[in-house]
Design a protein that fits this description.
heterodimer, A: about 300 residues, 13 helices, globular, B: about 325 residues, alpha/beta, eight-stranded mixed beta sheet, four-stranded antiparallel beta sheet, disordered C terminus
Chain lengths: ~300, ~325
């Protein structure tokens, strides 16, 4: 069988059991590779991540290098993506902004995942009064207007930093995830294989972590990768509305800056960061979809 | 020496619903000897599965065991702590379920699931576990076990999946195997294979088996003794001979007559009129009396108790208890 051949061919019985985990990862990887869409998504995510990590090294100019050309130099000339009204290089600003956007997106999603998973698990698995209480809290949180609270928080704490955005985003973003996880748990805890695991002497934690969570991974991953771009949007919207840190390099700041030139001769200032956000969120969504399919053991790698 | 492995005494498991309490298992007493196969027969909804879940204390809300004792190998299981009980589950008592495909976790290989069962109850090195898995899979008749253990459940057929489930249950050498309708969801030919397998394994492992089912024909293939349940009550229990040659309870008689037979020519199979009563409000007296053709006055007034009528043959029916003669004459 294919999945065994490369990994195991030379090894002995000692390895026969161990690789079932290693091969699982390997199978997921192979399936991911087999899907063009997933590879495309992964490539975008990887590219954006590398750019974000190495931003200062890649960017040809710094964020404050002004008048490298005359102001509002159009794109697709000797300056790739043009310059803004201060003669700053848009391409460099995009690269530097990737760091902020990705930081906000990943940070918020991690916070959302931590709260949402915990709440959903407890609610779905234990049920009863605690479920009732947690779900009502989730309902209440769901009604809160995220953007407005972000504006309030940013103004209140006077730390125009992106950490406030992450904090508010994560603290308000978990209810949907919690509900999805809860409903997965509600269905799965009734399933025969969970009953069977219990009859074999498995305790609550083992049942949750080994039997229920792996079976709900697909929906969790899809939801999280779909939420990640939203946090990037929030950061961009906030700065676009003028509540971000105007000195930070971010796609939102750049868009806000370009807003003033949209009707005159400077469309590229706002358009390119917009495009960057679009491509990044597309990348995460595609990767999420691909991961979901790759994690589904009932489909085989080609 | 006492030969009893499992001794259930007056077990009561009720489900507390909004409409009222459902007495799914009501004062059932049952004994299984070491090495014995007891067949528990009854219609769906009569409480046989609830009884088996009660033994392992796996009753879910809103259900609760409200009374009785479950003595297993000299220990009252109902008195154990949850962590002690976990050692019993899968270790001393293992269970196999009706639908083999859904009793296996779809995202893990069959081998890793058997490994999990072994790891839960035994300290063994990985290499030993692998050896054990291969050994047990070949014992239950999985061809090519070294290869097939790395397959996922969906790559198994229904019959193979049930073999794997049996392998998992037997992996820790349980003293008691509870098999809840193990062949119901399988094709007839596969059913026969699984029954053959269980017969063979019975000799191999020497475990007692509580075989639960609704089909007397299938159950009798394997059982030494048969217990018949109706509407949460045990109505008759005897060895195979007794049940087939001399069925006493009218319900048992009706069940037997509803099995198609090759040696007796009948136009139509017997149908038991009516349905199993709702257990929220069971009929007073004998629960079978509304469907019973021999029902007498006392049947709707008092509940018949299980009485030993023949040696090793107990029945709960006024047709056989001493005071029924006076009733009849009245």
């Amino acid at each position: 069988m294919a999945k065994r051949s490369t990994v195991r061919s030379g090894e002995e019985t000692e390895e026969v059991y161990e690789p079932s985990k290693a091969t699982q990862l390997y199978v997921v990887w192979r399936k991911l590779k087999a899907s063009n869409v997933a590879v495309f998504g992964a490539a975008i995510v990887l590219a954006v991540s590398v750019v974000a990590l190495l931003a200062p090294l890649i960017a040809p100019y710094g964020p404050n290098d002004m008048y490298i050309t005359e102001p509002l130099h159009p794109p697709f000339s000797e300056v790739w993506l043009g310059t803004d009204d201060w003669g700053r290089d848009i391409f460099s600003l995009l690269i530097l902004g990737a760091r902020t956007s990705l930081y906000v997106g990943i940070g918020s999603v991690l916070l959302e995942a931590a709260i949402g998973l915990a709440v959903g698990m407890i609610s779905g698995y234990f049920g009863g009064l605690i479920d009732e209480v947690l779900m009502r809290i989730a309902d209440a949180v769901l009604t809160l207007p995220t953007l407005m609270l972000m504006i309030i928080a940013v103004s209140m704490f006077e730390m125009r930093g992106i950490n406030v955005i992450i904090l508010v985003g994560g603290l308000l973003g978990w209810p949907l995830l919690a509900r999805v996880v809860r409903s997965e748990f509600l269905t799965l805890k009734q399933s025969t294989f969970v009953e069977a695991a219990r009859s074999m002497g498995a305790g609550n934690w083992r049942i949750i972590l080994r039997h229920i969570v792996p079976n709900s991974m697909a929906s969790i991953i899809v939801l999280l990768t779909m939420d990640l771009p939203w946090y990037i949007f929030y950061e961009a919207s906030l700065t676009f509305l003028g509540f971000g840190d105007p000195t930070a390099a971010s796609w939102g700041v750049l868009m806000e800056h370009g807003r003033r030139f949209l009707n005159s001769q400077g469309w590229w200032i706002a358009a390119f960061p917009g495009l960057a956000i679009l491509i990044t969120s597309l990348g995460f969504n595609l990767l999420g979809d691909g991961l979901r399919d790759a994690l589904d053991v009932t489909t085989r790698a080609r | 020496m006492d030969n009893t492995l499992l001794d259930i005494r007056n077990l009561k498991t009720y489900f507390f619903t909004e409409e009222g309490s459902v007495k799914a298992v009501d004062e059932v007493s049952l004994k299984i000897n070491k090495g014995e196969v007891l067949g528990l027969v009854g219609e769906s909804g009569c409480g046989k599965s609830t009884l088996s879940f009660s033994i392992l204390r796996l009753i879910r809300d809103p259900g609760r065991i409200v009374g009785g004792e479950v003595w297993f190998d000299g220990v009252d299981l109902l008195g154990l702590s949850e962590s002690e009980m976990r050692k019993v589950r899968g270790g001393d008592i293992a269970m196999i379920f009706q639908n083999p495909m859904s009793s296996l976790n779809p995202v893990f290989t069959v081998g890793s699931q058997i490994a999990e069962a072994i790891e839960l109850h035994q300290d063994a090195k990985k290499s030993e576990i692998v050896k054990k898995i291969v050994e047990i899979l070949s014992k239950v008749g999985i061809p090519n076990p070294t290869e097939r253990m790395d397959d996922y459940p969906h790559e198994y057929s229904g019959g193979m999946a049930q073999r794997a489930v049996i392998a998992m249950a037997l992996s820790c050498n349980p003293k008691l195997l509870i098999a809840d309708e193990p062949t119901t969801n399988l094709d007839v030919t596969i059913q026969a294979q699984i029954l053959e397998l269980m017969k063979a394994l019975r000799k191999d492992f020497g475990a007692s088996i509580l075989l639960i089912g609704h089909d007397l024909g299938v159950i009798s293939e394997l059982s030494d003794r048969i217990a018949v349940m109706y509407a949460g009550k045990l109505v008759e229990s005897s060895d195979l001979e007794g049940i087939f040659q001399k069925p006493m309870h009218p319900y048992t008689q009706a069940l037997l007559e509803s099995i198609p037979r090759l040696d007796v020519k009948t136009e139509r199979l017997r149908i038991i009129p009516g349905t199993v009563p709702r257990l929220i409000k069971p009929p007073p007296g004998c629960r079978f009396h509304p469907r019973c053709e021999h029902a007498m006055k006392i049947c709707s007034e008092q509940e018949p108790q299980l009485t030993e009528v023949d040696k090793g043959h107990t029945v709960a029916c006024y047709l056989y208890t001493a005071n029924n003669k006076s009733n009849r004459s009245r």
